[in-house]
Amino acid sequence: MPRRSVLGLVAVGLALAIACTACTEEGSPRGPASAGEAGPAVITVGSFDFPESVLLAYLYAGALSARGYPVRVLPDLGTRELVEPALMTGLVQLIPEYTGSALEFVSLGRAHATASVAATAAALARWMAARGIVTARPAPAQDANAIVVTGATAARYRLRTISDLAAAAPRLVFGGPPECAERPDCLPGLRRAYGLRFRAFAALDADGPLTRQALESGDIGVALLFTTDPAIQADHLVALADNRDLQPAENVVPVLRRATADRYGAGLLAALDAVSARLSTAALTALNAQVEPDGRDPRTVAGSWLRDQGLGRRAP
């Protein structure tokens, strides 16, 4: 295990042990009868450290809570390098994931995700099962990496596809989350698949305000954003076509510990699948727009959507 993952486990453990004031209780202390005679155990739903992941955590947790499962949310835990080990060791019991990125991570790069939704999801289920993790049904919603430039940059260098960046890349700074420097679908992949070598890399945030501000101010010329980022359309940014299929299928999928799935039975997975079945890419993008830039609380946004879909608790 890489050193950063060990440190991450310590950090997540401390977060759970001494900073659980960040936990948001979603369920009552009483769970469904299927929890068994030993008494219900609280299902801790963790999220990565970007707004969409927090929103997804509240969506799945809220649906479980509405069916009586004891749930709490622990948002903004960190990157996949921190959160996946926490799931594997039981510090959290459920996280919303993305099929392609999760497969590359859990297989340590030995299994390569493709653009095939079914093949990528099936491969992820096999690799997760070997580690005591169950994958629920993937949602139609996908959120992949997007290589984005401003309209002015696209016009100046005549950019429509990622391949078009080849001549301009040495003059441009690329900005994205710090882990982009090592992720196979980010800088290493752009070098391997497209031969791109940028003037410099600016470590910023994961699809967050720092990256968008740096792009729009000209501090960086190219950015890694996410395809469900509402700012791409709202700010007239240009997402370059991935004409060499670097980015794999990235369907939203809840993953949970097998012990948790076994404890609560089929009803737990059914509740998660009901959310995923209604979650399209367009719906996820619209929900993101309510959280950013509108600034609404993700728990409130999630609760409202669940009620509209008949999956949440109705107001008395």
Q: How is this structure best described in words?
A:
The protein is α/β, with parallel strands linked by helices. It has helices spanning 3-18, 51-66, 80-88, 99-106, 117-129, 151-157, 187-194, 209-217, 231-234, 258-264, 266-278, 281-291, 298-308; strands spanning 24-25, 43-48, 71-78, 94-98, 133-135, 145-149, 173-176, 200-203, 222-226, 238-239, 252-257. The strands form three sheets. A five-stranded mixed beta sheet has the order 8-7-9-6-10. Helix 1 (3-18) packs across helix 3, helix 2 packs across helix 13 (298-308) and helix 4 runs parallel beside helix 5. The longest helix has 16 residues, at 3-18. Mean pLDDT is 88; it is low at 1-19 and 28-39.
Question: Key terms for this structure?
Answer:
316 residues, alpha/beta, 3-stranded mixed β-sheet, 11 strands, 42% helix, disordered N terminus
What's the short version?
The protein has helices at residues 3-18, 51-66, 80-88, 99-106, 117-129, 151-157, 187-194, 209-217, 231-234, 258-264, 266-278, 281-291, 298-308, and strands at 24-25, 43-48, 71-78, 94-98, 133-135, 145-149, 173-176, 200-203, 222-226, 238-239, 252-257. It is an alpha/beta fold and 316 residues long. Helix 7 (187-194) links the parallel strand 7 (173-176) and strand 8 (200-203).
